[in-house]
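Incident review: delayed structure delivery

Summary: a single-chain prediction request sat in the queue longer than the usual turnaround. Root cause was a stuck worker, restarted by the on-call engineer. No data loss occurred. The affected request and its eventual output are reproduced below so the record is complete for anyone auditing the incident later.

Affected input:
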Amino acid sequence: MKLKRFVPFILDIGADARDSEYVRLIKRIWYAATTASLPISLLSALSEVRAGHGMLAASFFFAFLLFLAVLVDGARAPRHFERNTLIVLVFFVLAPAIITVTAGGIWHASGSIMIGLLGPLFALMLPDKRWAFCLFGLYVALVLILTGIWPFPGDRAFLAAGFDQFQFWLGFVVLPAFVFGGMYFFVVQRDKAHRLLGLEKDKSESLLRRIEKDVEQAAEIQKRLLPARDPVLEGFDISGANIPCYQVGGDYYDFVPIDADRLGLVIADVSGKGISAALLMASLRAALLAEVHPGFDIERMAVRLSDFIHRSSASNGFITFFFGELDRRTGELRYINAGHNPPFVARRTGGFAALGTSGFPLGMFPGANYEPGTVRLDEGDTAVLFTDGITEARNGAREEYSEERLRGAVAGHPELAARELCRAVLEEAHAFACATEPSDDITLVVVKRNPGLGSS
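Output delivered after worker restart:
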């Protein structure tokens, strides 16, 4: 039970909320190794005391105190990690070399020079790993130099002491290969993976920023494709509004002048959302403007648009579309409804007239036919064109705003001008949906025939 508590305690030494996962891993490796070095250094100090090697015993005991101080400081001040690593690094590089020289040679220091090879190991913890490899090379050169200065004694007494030259060099080669090679894969390779991950993260963030910039530009372009101002048509008050679900959307409305007495009213909803829907919407607008002119035929226009969308979109791409040709002289609205939510006319005298569908959505089938419909707007009547983003808005109880509520909102404000009525309806729908962000594009067009401003 105590061991279960001890291990997490050791692994949490030096923990800092500001550390990345990689830095936290390095700290755990380092402090776990330092903890394991405590009993090793203490036992080594006692062993050297029994052997009568006072200087070696003192160095191992000093190492024990250094490890203990580093652990305590790491637990109290996590940000001192690099400083503590550097202190231990300097100790392991200098102390074995000083002991070797003081003891009178590499062979009389019981091979303690090999302990200095831990220096490059600790250098692996530094940000720049090149220092570790340089230090490793320098330390190997130092061992060779000291070996040349104090060559191996050839007397039998020294050989009998159990320190064989072959064993020393074998240990010298094996120890660095094991320690340095192992730590290379566990630390350097992990560090390399971390850097590559950082590069990929930078690339992803750069790509994301570029996409966000492109989306912002697309949103600005799409905004310019929608009417910049309400149209002017004698005897009528007309206004529209669009709220995209994302920065760009697939809803579209427009007011297309046909001649001095006629105005085209357009509302459409592209299947899907986002960039793809916005591109298809832009294509529809371009094709529509090319089709509408004073001598155009509304039925033929719808057929040509449907075939164009069928050729230009994926198999599951289509557009619900409503086009109305409003004549200010008669108040007559001649229309094509290609699978769109039926607009309605709120009569001044009460009641509603729905402008039902007359064919499939644009692009659903090639060669589709459309039957035009006609409705007359009398003075005081209000025509409302909308997309399903309004009627399908849901509140916390998952209830839809519904067409019934939309009709009630329009009928409840007969005195409002078209622009104010648009604003009032959208505010009511927004409040109904608990003031949450819309889950679909929202578009609304209001056409009111002004009383007392009859045809000319």
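Verification: The chain has two domains: 2-144+167-189, 230-449.
Action items: add queue-age alerting; document worker restart procedure.
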